[in-house]
Amino acid sequence: MFDQTYKIADKFNVSEKIILHSGDCLEFLNQCPDIIFKLIVTSPPYNIGKEYEKKLDLPVYLEQQKQVIRECVRTLSPQGSICWQVGNYVNNGSIIPLDTVLYPIFAELGLQLRNRIIWHFEHGLHCTSRFSGRYETILWFTKSDNYTFNLDPVRVPQKYPGKKYFKGPKVGQYSGNPLGKNPGDLWIIPNVKSNHIEKTEHPCQFPVELIERLVLALTDEEDWVFDPFLGTGTSIIAAIRHNRRGAGAEIVPKYITLAKNRIMQSLNGTLKTRPMNKPVYDPIKAGNSQTNIPWLEKTEDGQMSIFDSSNRGERTTKS
Ligand SMILES: C[S@@+](CC[C@H](N)C(=O)[O-])C[C@H]1O[C@@H](n2cnc3c(N)ncnc32)[C@H](O)[C@@H]1O
Q: What structural domains does the chain harbor?
């Protein structure tokens, strides 16, 4: 679909393929026609005081979100989906999962929730007065019962591909789908932290593979994908990699520059991304020496024991 005359437009025009609006998302949405976008996917500001947001009272924040969501619903195709990815709003150490307070807005606008996807990752802040947060959610809504859903392109390897039917008319045949299984609603995908290959200076980027899965499942080629809070351009990148059209709005100039650069790199094949379905790095399997526990030593029988434990009268791992 993309030729050598790559162009990133700023204003909405249905004949474009890539649009990055430098400015407020509502301003952009106001230019867009009804029922144009097949997938609207975003991670809005969480109202937790990041550098690009002013912390607001929760009702004020929710009212702002409602204005954007209402416009998203207007511009969403009847076969389309909205995926709203959020974490927690934190106030004086007390958390409010944002999906719980945003859900009523979508429901009032007539959308239907298809999945509440748990996105689990292993890196983040270490909390001292509650368990450290290691997941966020994606609320996936559709506008109607007749929605695009392509399971085959996002199937993942079976756990037991060699399993066979043991009774019935198909006895002896393999029971699993050779294309793989449904990925389920718990997605284990590394978040973009310091040594992730996609890391930029933006504090909360989507990993491209997270959005690729949504693009492949919820749109067809040539469909429009839109992200109202585009950040570093990830949603556009995930769209154009799979021959979809991508649009987004971003308000902070340095992220607009970053997004444009990443989109161009994606187009010319130089953007480094973590491949979809690559297994999560396991430092023990990889033989990373930092997984050795420094205060344990190996005894002759290969068991570990704690240094000087006999002197301190402590239990060892041998006991
Ligand atoms: C959570 S980040 C999204 C990051 C993005 N998912 C990515 O992969 O880079 C939210 C982004 O929304 C932008 N933003 C905040 N208010 C906005 C508005 N009214 N219109 C457009 N962008 C806005 C912020 O500058 C920030 O980059």
A: 18-267 (3.40.50.150), 283-319 (no CATH)
In contact, 271 and 249? CB cutoff 8 Å: no
228 and 25 Cβ atoms separated by less than 8 Å: yes
Residue 91: per-residue pLDDT: 87
Residue 249: CB within 6 Å of ligand 1? yes
Residue 231 Cβ contacting ligand 1 at under 6 Å: yes
**Position with higher pLDDT, 136 vs 316:** 136
Strand 88-91 relative to strand 94-97: parallel, antiparallel, unpaired?
Answer: antiparallel
Alpha carbon of 105 to those of 72, 99, 148, 160, 226: distances in Å? 12, 10, 22, 41, 19
**Looking up tokens 């066979």, which residue turns up?**
164
Task: Determine the Cα–Cα distance for residues 283 and 127; give it in Å rounded to an integer.
Answer: 23
Distances from the Cα of 13 to the Cαs of 20, 244, 268, 287, 297, in angstroms? 11, 15, 23, 52, 66
Ligand 1 atom with the shortest distance to the CA of 52:
25
Residue range 103-133, pLDDT digits in tens: 999 999 999 999 999 999 998 989 999 999 9
CA 96-225-103 angle, 5° bins: 25
Of 92, 98, 31, nearest in space to 65 by CA:
98
- In SS3 terms, 7-51 reads as CCECCCCCCCCEEEEECCHHHHHHHCCCCCEEEEEECCCCCCCCC
Confidence of residue 277 (pLDDT cuts 50, 70, 90): confident
Mutational test site, ligand 1, from 22, 51, 208, 251, max ligand atoms within 8 Å of CB: 251
Alpha carbon distance 80, 191 (integer Å): 26
Cβ atoms 224, 203 nearer than 8 A: no
Q: Is 12 in the pocket of ligand 1 (CB under 6 A)?
A: no
